[in-house]
């Protein structure tokens, strides 16, 4: 059995950042395992610009952003095996690996999970009607169009205003298809504001807020999509139907962390994020098992994924060097108006100068405050002009505050 | 060429009959209008080999279900199909159901079907997600699950190896009698045959009328389902039925062979035999009704919805008869059609009284017994060293390798569509529903079948996922 000090599962942005951090800190016996033919993950199909504003202060395409990290990993001599899939992961940190050379078990001392996410599908959101050809998840469509170079449809409607859907609205238009509109169930968009402007407004593509698809017709190929307005309980309103004659429906209705391996290993998931629960080093309840990127919670900006990968890498370094003390901290809680807070626990409050918390609001707010509480006592308040569920928020707490928290740290929204 | 026997329909019924008859020294043809074996009713159902306590006394359904379920273990061993006797729990949750419950127990006893009556506590120990209203449970340990299209395909493969011919994409449009048999008029031309076996499922009434028989209408009754991902596999270990009512078996939770869970089906009479659409009303009904027998339903693990259509008839029992010379009619083969399939085939064989001798050499076993996924780590490693494509995982949800996909395209009655591959080796059945692997499967199909990517169909003609290649990538 091969022994490796630290295995990183997945060579996307998160996995690469973790590996680079480990290597720079003296962990040489590393291995990045990547299922695809090259590293970079989902970025390889995101050929539009807009990546790297935080990391590099410039706008790169997805592949260009990924390449910077791939090159760095190469220069550092990090061992990467592509076309290699992890097929099982066990609590003792052994993993099963398959590629064209064989099938083997690798025993690791530490593991970083960086498997990315999957798209929610039409089955998951249960669109009623027929199941004809022509209904694609936006990411799959993106792959068909951008990587494989196929034409997939001529008249297109999009359900869901997630970023990939918005970007595909523009992509399909540029590819010569007619995009008739985007329907979003919620009264607000789930995509970044800049994507609404650059991908819809600039191309005169209408956005139907508080609408959903209520019927799909046509067989074998999609012919018609019916959308209806929804009431405040998100139930379709009779009589509000609009019919679009299209041959393609793209779904951009959310992403879910790909934790197939994790669940099989018996690690339970946070019901909100659908990722594992972690501490401030992205370390799971199982010492030595770390997670970062979209496998942990879905990110909208790759720069944050990179930062999280580094954090997990740093955690793995300290774990491997035996530098982490006894766990003795507190849990975090999503209070009023917040859907989740990461990390779910702070295990080593006195170890670092500060800890960064990420969270999302449940619904949009204007002129509200983010309030951080130690139990009932307020420790921090930040005024916000606008808060959107689509945009991940962050708050940093210094050591002086962290060491005073004993039970529970609550983050909540307070309306003005 | 003139065939001795032509079987119309390659569903589980037609395939079981072909398997059984292929030992005779005569020429047999199976035709199906679809581009793959078992692509209609046998593709979308609950996949249960019921033990046989449910059908009423004195019915053909009762008789053939009991017999069929006893034949299944050996059949599946012979043909190398999955068979899992997970057992069933029929759950009584109100005192009014006592009489029905007792009748089921009596029938099980009379038909010599193993059963046990469990108290609520005993049952909940095994199935913690039963509702708190459960009073008692009828446990049927021999109730099993199979993969119906696999049972069909594996039998038909053996038949082909014994000399049976199969014509897919071949729709029987009309039938005329000739001096000693029939001429089938199809979209692929005329086919001469002596004997016809009508196992056309939803269209069996139409086929019967083609030879002038007056038969009942097939009344399509739709059943909708949710599919839960592997993440929910521990939700139910047994098939969980409520107490049946006049309307049917009720809403079930059914574990599948591949460790998913099905929730459904409802039963709704519809007009269109192709109406496999799902409806908001139907799915909401399932969500609600399910809660009479189970709680903590992990609805967030739903990965898909689908619908199947029962080929029901008003008179309810199976009709299997030889109403005229050289014509076997099978009508109203709805549930328990799967459970009864091997017994139906035997029954048809007896009805036929074929004059042909039995071949000296014929197969009953399917030679495709190799299951890569079931190998140990060392065996997998050794196998990949010889066959490297088995190490290349294409589908990450179900962990299917390129080697398995290529093999299922090239075996007898191999896959010709993305759905065909999905039926045989499962890429696309998992959580991402093909989001990651469909482009790869499409490429493999195009390569292996020597066609253009835009010619690769998801299912039937017109379901090609890509319309054209615009160029761009060197190796595409
Ligand atoms: C379709 C899509 C479009 C996006 N568009 C934008 C955008 O326009 N702008 C922006 O800033 N952000 C965008 N994002 C967000 C951001 O780019 C991603 O969140 C980020 O790239 C995710 O990085 P990751 O490393 O977590 O996951 P990924 O990039 O998905 O990497 C995971 C890697 O793990 C591999 N893997 C998975 N399972 C296994 C296994 N069992 N064995 C081996 N390898 C495995 C995968 O092959 C993959 O390469 C997008 C995300 C998606 C999904
Ligand atoms: C919702 C639902 C749940 C069920 N659950 C169960 C269960 O749990 N257990 C159980 O035992 N049974 C169950 N059943 C019943 C079972 O599925 C059927 O009895 C069985 O699949 C019928 O098989 P078949 O071969 O007769 O029909 P099919 O599989 O439909 O085969 C008929 C074939 O004939 C072909 N055909 C039709 N017309 C023509 C033509 N003119 N020319 C050429 N080919 C033609 C069709 O293409 C089709 O492939 C269920 C059914 C449904 C719908």
Our measurement of the CA-to-CA distance between the termini of chain B, rounded to an integer number of angstroms, reads 43 Å
Q: Quickly name the level 1 CATH class of the largest domain in chain A.
A: Alpha Beta
Number of domains of chain A: 3
Shape category of chain A: globular
Strand-pairing-aware structural class of chain A:
alpha/beta
| Largest sheet geometry of chain B | 8 strands, mixed
By DSSP (H or I, 4+ residues per run), the number of helices of chain B equals 12
Name the beta content range of chain A: 35-45%
What's the β-strand tally of chain B? 23
Topology-level CATH name of the largest domain in chain B: FAD/NAD(P)-binding domain
- Which regions of chain B have little confidence, pLDDT < 50, spanning 5+ residues? none
What's the level 1 CATH class of the largest domain in chain B?
Alpha Beta
Structure write-up:
The complex is a heterodimer of chains A (416) and B (476). With 416 residues, chain A is α/β, with parallel strands linked by helices. Chain A is built from 9 helices and 28 strands. In chain A, strands 1, 2, 5, 6, 7, 8 and 20 form a 7-stranded mixed sheet that branches. In chain A, strands 10-18-12-13-14 form a 5-stranded parallel sheet. The model of chain A has no long low-confidence stretch (mean pLDDT 94). By secondary structure, chain B is of the alpha+beta class. Chain B folds into 3 domains: 1-81 and 147-218 and 313-369, 3-Layer(bba) Sandwich (FAD/NAD(P)-binding domain), CATH 3.50.50.60; 88-141 and 219-310, D-Amino Acid Oxidase, subunit A, domain 2 (D-Amino Acid Oxidase, Chain A, domain 2, 2-Layer Sandwich), CATH 3.30.9.10; 373-455, Arc Repressor Mutant, subunit A. In chain B, strands 1, 2, 9, 10, 11, 12, 19 and 20 form an 8-stranded mixed sheet that branches. In chain B, a hairpin with a 2-residue loop joins strand 10 and strand 11 (181-186). The radius of gyration of chain B is 23 Å and the shape is globular. Chain B starts with a strand and ends in a 7-residue tail after the last strand. The model of chain B has no long low-confidence stretch (mean pLDDT 95). Chains A and B meet through strand 7, strand 8, helix 3, helix 4 and strand 11 of A and strand 18, helix 9, helix 12 and strand 23 of B. Strand 11 (150-151) of chain A pairs antiparallel with strand 23 (468-469) of chain B. The structure holds flavin-adenine dinucleotide (FAD) (2 copies).
């Amino acid at each position: 059995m091969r022994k490796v000090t630290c295995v990183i599962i997945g060579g996307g942005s998160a996995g690469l950042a973790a590996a680079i951090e480990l290597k720079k800190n003296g962990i040489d016996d590393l291995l990045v395992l990547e299922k695809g033919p090259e590293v970079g993950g989902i970025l390889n199909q995101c050929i539009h610009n807009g990546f790297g504003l935080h990391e590099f202060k410039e706008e790169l395409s997805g592949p260009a952003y990924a390449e910077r990290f791939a090159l760095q990993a190469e220069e550092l001599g990090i061992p990467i095996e592509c076309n290699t899939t992890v097929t099982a992961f066990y609590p003792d940190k052994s993993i099963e690996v398959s590629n064209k050379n064989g099938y083997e078990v690798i025993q690791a001392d530490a593991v970083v999970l960086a498997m990315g996410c999957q798209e929610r599908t039409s089955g998951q959101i249960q669109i009623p009607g027929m199941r004809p050809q022509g209904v694609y998840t936006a990411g799959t469509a993106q792959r068909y169009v951008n990587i494989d170079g196929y034409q997939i449809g001529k008249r297109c409607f999009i359900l869901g205003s997630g970023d990939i859907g918005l970007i595909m609205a523009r992509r399909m238009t540029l590819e010569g298809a007619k995009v008739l509109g985007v329907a979003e169930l919620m009264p607000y968009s789930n995509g970044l504001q800049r994507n609404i402007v650059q991908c819809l407004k600039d191309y005169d593509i209408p956005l139907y807020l508080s609408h959903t698809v209520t019927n799909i017709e046509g067989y074998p190929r999609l012919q018609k999509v019916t959308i209806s307005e929804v009431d405040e309980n998100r139930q379709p309103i009779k009589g509000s139907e609009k019919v679009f004659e299209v041959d393609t429906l793209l779904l951009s209705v959310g992403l879910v962390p790909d934790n197939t391996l994790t669940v099989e290993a018996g690690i339970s998931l946070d019901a909100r994020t659908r990722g594992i629960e972690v501490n401030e080093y992205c370390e799971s309840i199982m010492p030595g098992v770390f997670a970062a990127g979209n496998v942990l919670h879905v990110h909208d900006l790759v720069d944050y994924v990179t930062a999280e990968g580094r954090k997990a890498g740093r955690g793995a370094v300290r774990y491997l060097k035996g530098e982490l003390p006894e766990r003795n901290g507190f849990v975090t809680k999503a209070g009023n108006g917040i859907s989740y807070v990461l990390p779910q626990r702070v295990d080593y409050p006195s170890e670092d100068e500060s800890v960064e918390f990420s969270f999302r609001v449940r619904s949009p707010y204007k002129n509200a405050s983010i309030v951080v509480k130690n139990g009932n006592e307020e420790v921090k308040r930040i005024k916000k002009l606008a808060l959107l569920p689509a945009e991940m928020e962050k708050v940093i707490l210094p050591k002086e505050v962290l060491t005073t928290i004993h039970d529970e740290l609550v983050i909540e929204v307070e309306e003005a | 060429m003139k065939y001795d026997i032509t079987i119309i329909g390659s569903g589980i019924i037609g395939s079981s009959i072909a398997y059984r008859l292929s030992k005779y020294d005569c020429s047999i043809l199976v035709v199906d209008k679809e581009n793959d074996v078992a692509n209609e009713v046998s593709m979308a159902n609950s996949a249960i080999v019921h033990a046989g306590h449910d059908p009423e006394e004195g019915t053909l359904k009762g008789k053939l279900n009991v017999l069929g379920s006893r034949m299944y273990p050996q059949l599946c061993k012979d043909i190398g199909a999955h068979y899992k006797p997970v057992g069933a729990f029929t759950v009584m949750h109100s005192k009014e159901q006592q009489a029905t419950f007792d009748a089921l127990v009596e029938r099980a006893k009379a038909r010599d079907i193993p059963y046990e009556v469990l108290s609520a506590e005993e049952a909940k120990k095994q199935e913690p997600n039963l509702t708190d209203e459960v009073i008692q449970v009828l446990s049927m340990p021999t109730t099993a699950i199979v993969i119906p299209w696999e049972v069909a395909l594996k039998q038909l493969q053996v038949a082909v190896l014994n000399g049976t011919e199969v014509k897919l994409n071949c729709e029987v449009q009309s039938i005329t009698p000739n001096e000693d048999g029939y001429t089938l008029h199809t979209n692929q031309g005329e086919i001469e045959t002596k004997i016809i076996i009508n196992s056309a499922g939803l269209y069996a009434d139409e086929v019967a009328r083609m030879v002038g028989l007056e038969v009942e209408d097939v009344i399509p009754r739709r059943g909708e389902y949710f599919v839960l991902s592997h993440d929910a596999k521990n939700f139910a270990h047994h098939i969980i039925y409520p107490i049946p009512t006049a309307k049917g078996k009720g809403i079930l939770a059914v574990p599948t062979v591949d460790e998913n869970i099905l929730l459904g089906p409802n039963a709704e009479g519809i007009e269109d035999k192709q109406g496999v659409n799902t409806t908001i009303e139907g799915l909401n009904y399932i969500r609600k009704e399910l809660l009479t027998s189970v709680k903590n339903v992990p609805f967030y693990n739903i990965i898909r919805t689908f619908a199947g259509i029962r080929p029901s008839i008003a008179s309810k029992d199976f009709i299997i008869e030889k109403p005229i010379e050289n014509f076997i009619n099978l009508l109203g083969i709805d549930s328990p059609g799967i459970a009864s399939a091997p017994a139906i085939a035997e029954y048809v064989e007896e009805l036929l009284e074929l004059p042909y001798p039995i071949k000296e050499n014929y197969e009953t076993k399917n030679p495709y017994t190799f299951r890569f996924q079931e190998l140990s780590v060392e065996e997998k490693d050794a196998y990949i060293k010889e066959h490297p494509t088995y190490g290349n995982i294409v589908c990450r949800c179900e962990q299917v390798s390129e080697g398995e996909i290529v093999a299922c395209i090239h075996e007898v009655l191999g896959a010709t569509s993305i759905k065909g591959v999905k039926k045989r080796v499962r890429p696309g059945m998992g959580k991402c529903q093909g989001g990651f692997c469909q482009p790869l499967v499409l490429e493999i199909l195009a390569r292996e079948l020597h066609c253009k990517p835009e010619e690769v169909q998801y299912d039937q003609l017109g379901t090609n996922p890509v319309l054209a290649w615009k160029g761009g990538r060197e190796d595409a």
